[in-house]
Amino acid sequence: MGVKLKNNAFGTLAAGINSSVTTIALTAGQGAKFPTTSADDYFYATVIDSSNNLEVVKVTTRSTDSMTVTRAQDNTSARAFTAGDRFELRPNAKVFEDILSESRDLNGAEFILDADADTTITADTDDQIDIKIANSDDFQFTSNKFTAQLGSGIVLAKSTATSDEASSAGSFTENNYNISHTLTLDGTLVNDAVLADFTVTSDKCLATSVVIGTCSLKCHVDIHTVAAGSFKVSITNKSGGTLADDSTMVINYAIL
């Protein structure tokens, strides 16, 4: 779809034309030198007389040796030509303008990204972008929304952090939306006891953020005092027993 090219295509007019006709016939057998057109395809040709007067035409359909054309293209004027005048596919300015325009505007056409043509991006539905990977419709963008399609998922990478409740009260800084935090207890923590609050500092945290926390041990994770740049965490032992000194737990945080 779009502008078509072919090397060294040339021919001559089988009959004269006036300045208004939109069908040009070439000498028998010469049409095959020019591009084949299908729906929405076209190419530009230059008609030249013996005095080097010329006109650029846009060929929208080629049927054997017959060309259906739009006259007076690329800042040229429609004029009459006689049988035997040349008809050539030349690299005029309008060809390059259209190629550049097509490269910027896909007009809903599917854009192939990989070598085996099974990973693509397309916007053939207005205000919607669809991403296909391995011939599967995986992801969709619409206004203010990103959707992972059924059978697809989103994996958010985590950064890792460690802290020792003895030396740092558990507080630490980690600038990521998803954090995997290993905390080492200083002393025992009996059932239903609450570990002293510690602060997580992150530049991803906003005052309006929602922070979710889960623990590898049977403990309740309470996220509170969410502010720009930080939030506080308290841990309550819900294991039914006492957590031993130097016990470690992995706490995962997601900042939304």
Mean pLDDT: 92
Helix/sheet category: mainly beta
Strand content of the residues, in percent? Answer: 35-45%
Helical fraction: under 10%
Instruction: Give the tally of β-strands.
Output: 20
Count, helices: 2
Q: What coarse outline follows from CA principal-axis ratios?
A: rod-shaped
Order of helices and strands: EEEEEEEHEEEEEEHEEEEEEE
Sheet with the most strands, sense and barrel status: 7 strands, mixed
Radius of gyration: 35 Å
> What is the number of independent domains?
3
The rounded distance between the terminal residues' Cα atoms is 44 Å
Low-confidence stretches: none
Report on the structure:
This protein is mostly beta strands and 256 residues long. It folds into 3 domains: 2-102; 106-148, no CATH class; 159-255, Sandwich (Immunoglobulin-like), CATH 2.60.40. It is 6% helix and 42% strand. It contains 2 helices and 20 strands. The strands form 4 sheets. Strands 1, 2, 3, 4, 5, 6 and 7 form a 7-stranded mixed β-sheet that branches. Strand 9 (120-122) and strand 10 (128-133) form a beta hairpin. It is rod-shaped and about 105 Å long. The protein starts with a strand and ends with a strand.
